[in-house]
């Protein structure tokens, strides 16, 4: 193991390390801790200049409740769900198929199609912005959640195909060959042989795409406007102008907006990290 | 004619499925990707040769948009800021490696520590931007009281054209370091313990060990870290939009933001000019995309 395990070092170093760990963590999360502290303070603390001390009274419950009762935040959260979940399903479904096709079959142009998906995935969004906005307008889907979902599915298919294809490549080919010898049709091979083996990849990808789409801001402001369609990343701007300079409310609102992917991460940590670090080890 | 009964009884599908199946599976994915990603790239190239407000008639003006770009000081400010982003964002890689080395231990609760160090990456950039904007805020932020402790004067990071871009980059580094850290933690996990022991017997330790024994084994992690960091740097948009709106006086714009502003600002939509900026950004990115594909192609041929 590198670096040398602390257990093999001197006692002094061991206790230094034990003390450094929490200290480093607090420093690392300091800006976030500041916002968390703000979010449980009452309004009075800000007017009286009690910024960093303990809250004069615990107002966390009140502040967070107000986020849900006095603002459009629930709408935005719901929009985010209705944008994120269909995108995850759509992108994962499409890429299971493209990944299977590119990972299992040998045919001319295979590698070029694969490269097309990979390259498209790295493109800066801005080169797509004007035409995609125009296309969405023409289809009558501007300022609808569906318009946003369709684009997200298409764009995420690039990354998802890269992911799925590499995963399928690593599966044992003998299983597929054996099924073919038995005369099983290709579609049934996909459905009954390969898909069950892809479960870990599907889980990892779903968690990742959920996070990416939930956190999207650029396309939300390009393709939607207003409370009926915008996800929470875009809605937080409206929320903040509603509570201008009310830092306890803005802090609580931001934490609510950031929470779903954080929960997703802590609940599905294994899948999340497996997905993110695919390829980091040879 | 005595045709093989076996062949005749089989349907077209049964005979051709090996050739047809991949295209069947690819069709929906390719259709989506072509309509929303591939065609728009070419359309942007085309639109960049027009003057167009997004509604009325587009007028062909040749390379006039690009000529205007070369005389546009805001374009150069954005380009310079993109260079700053690219260079400084790469600090996420040594930063992530450093934290990964610090956390690569087996003590009680270390898993929770790793998760807590990582989770800024999961927070949306919009919220990271807000959090740091408040952190820097001269009247309520924690930064100035902290600077005061070490005897440094108060500063308004986001209000000063000379510091604003660095302030936003620092905020952007926070989740990016977390990302690189997790890549390296995974890489360190897979380092061959026998090689480490052998090197230790040879007297290697500390920096020498890291440089000659560990880092070469971390090369796949480093490669991915470079790719995602470069792309992240060139995509930077959310934080700038949330923290400064490109200000003060447009000093924190990058190409991605300037393009958005030109195309969809309140002062009239200039889609053609915006598309020209996007094309420049795309060409910069193309260098990295080509490099990445070239490496992948080489690996495919070996594997």
Short description:
The complex is a heterodimer of chains A (282) and B (303). Chain A is mainly α. Chain A has helices at residues 11-28, 30-39, 43-47, 60-69, 73-104, 110-122, 126-138, 145-169, 173-181, 186-197, 199-214, 218-223, 232-242, 247-267, 269-276.
Characteristics of this structure?
heterodimer, A: 282 residues, mainly alpha, MetI-like fold, 2 domains, B: 303 residues, two-stranded antiparallel ribbon, 15 helices, 72% helix
Integer-rounded radius of gyration of chain A? 24 Å
β-sheet strand percentage of chain A:
under 5%
Instruction: Calculate the terminal CA-CA distance of chain B, rounded to whole Å.
Output: 48 Å
Mean pLDDT of chain B: 91
CATH-level-2 architecture of the largest domain in chain A: Orthogonal Bundle
Enumerate how many helices of chain A there are, as a single number. 15
Sequence stretches where pLDDT stays below 50 over 5 or more residues of chain A: none
Largest interface: A-B, 100 and 106 residues
Q: Strand order across the biggest sheet of chain B?
A: 1-2
Overall mean confidence score, pLDDT of chain A: 92
- Assign the CATH class of the largest domain in chain A: Mainly Alpha
* β-strand number of chain B: 2
